[in-house]
Amino acid sequence: MRVELPESFEKRMKEMLGDEYEAYIESYDNPRQYGLRINPMKITEEELAEGSGFSLEPIPWTKTGYFYKEENQPARHPYYSAGLYYLQEPSAMTPAAKFPVKPGERVLDLCAAPGGKATALGAALQGKGVLVANDISNSRAKALLKNLEVFGISNAFVTNEVPQNLADRFEGFFDKVLIDAPCSGEGMFRKDPAVIKTWDEERPEYFAKLQKDILKNGVRMLRPGGKLLYSTCTFAPVENEGSISWILNECPEMELLPIEGYEEFSEGNPAWGDGREELRRCVRIWPHKMKGEGHFLALMKKSEDAPETRIKLEAPTRMDKKNKTVMEEFFKDCQWKPDWERVQIKGEKVYLVPELPAKLNGIHFLRNGLYMGDLKKNRFEPSQQLAMTLKASDYAGSVSLSPEDERIGRYLRGETLLLEPGEATREKGWILVCVDQYAFGWGKLVNGVLKNKYWSGWRLKG
Ligand SMILES: C[S@@+](CC[C@H](N)C(=O)[O-])C[C@H]1O[C@@H](n2cnc3c(N)ncnc32)[C@H](O)[C@@H]1O
């Protein structure tokens, strides 16, 4: 049965789409498309297809996205808990796929929760540079943090702030800013009819106002020559070409850039904004033209001549010799070593922190960098988050279970496991528990009994 759409929404869509309106409405009868995006820091497409048996078909406008069949149920596969992929609606993959982020850059995802784009941007950084991932909602920021940590992103500063507070501290700091804006969500109507109930005629105007404030602060945080990508999952002109026209008028230092093409992308419509021709450079994704629900994208650049802001950066840290010796003892067994100049100790807790402005007091954050573990009386206890950045061959002690092994479910529920002699690469001490070669977390092995160190906050229930 076709969903019932609000009358005023239908009327506006008819005006917008003209002859194409029928095709748009018929797209509601098409089956839903399921997408997953692999984590290139942990796995390749071939490894995923071989290890999981999923039938994967590349999503042509992305590099790391694949359509999968509903019956594959990737959320139930152990690879999901190892952070090997993120489940994402195919058109929602476009903003991160079309935003050229390079390792070493400073990147801000201003409306990031629950992390659909932030996990992709973080993976593109490959642990180099910094990803500031922010959301105004505390509960959503918590989900964002977990998704980034499961993905093994080690250089994220996860904040829970209003954009203006961030802009006051990060003025001119970022190479790239992504604004995946809160919006009226008209592109979600087909996938999630519950969104229709939250919609009314005033929603687009309400969100357009919010988007302007977010955009203005996003621009403030860009360095000269930096790029900003704005996206929504709605069709309403006022939230798309409208918001972009507004920011271009407000900030003449911003210029709209073309977005690398895909033949089924549609252009933005100048008449839906202030009439300027460049609005054609925006991208619209329509569900009747592509295998995706709907999205809008605009890529902008701040002029190289815009005034520069100098921000004092936090100085490198100097570790206490005794603590460093204790940690070095643990990392003797690990292929990966931290950059000691970025290791910070707070009480017992040890963090690997990215390079950030020196003055961030007052900013509410959930995590700064990688929580590596705890220093306890002359020993170092590695964290869950550290495990998620490693694979079996990175650490001297590991056990690789096959995806069918029933002990995986028990491990993820926090139970103690029994290992056969020779199953783990060593008989005693810290063991990286893996599905195939991909880590889930830690265990501590004594006499064949593996004490469970999977993080209590992430344990499966039941
Ligand atoms: C479209 S969702 C983001 C989806 C996310 N980028 C992803 O791919 O998973 C928009 C987000 O903006 C957040 N938000 C709403 N108002 C905001 C504001 N003023 N500043 C920052 N974030 C805001 C919402 O809490 C919501 O999580």
Automatic annotation (TrEMBL):
Residues 24-303 form the SAM-dependent MTase RsmB/NOP-type domain. It holds the Pfam family RsmF_methylt_CI. One of its GO terms (molecular function) is S-adenosylmethionine-dependent methyltransferase activity. The active site is at 233 (nucleophile). S-adenosyl-L-methionine binds at residues 111-117, 135, 180. One of its GO terms (biological process) is RNA methylation. Keywords: Cytoplasm, Methyltransferase, RNA-binding, S-adenosyl-L-methionine, Transferase. It comes from the Bacteria. Signal peptide: none annotated. SUPFAM superfamilies: S-adenosyl-L-methionine-dependent methyltransferases (SSF53335). Transmembrane segments: none annotated. Belongs to the class I-like SAM-binding methyltransferase superfamily. RsmB/NOP family. This is NOL1/NOP2/sun family putative RNA methylase. It comes from Blautia faecicola.
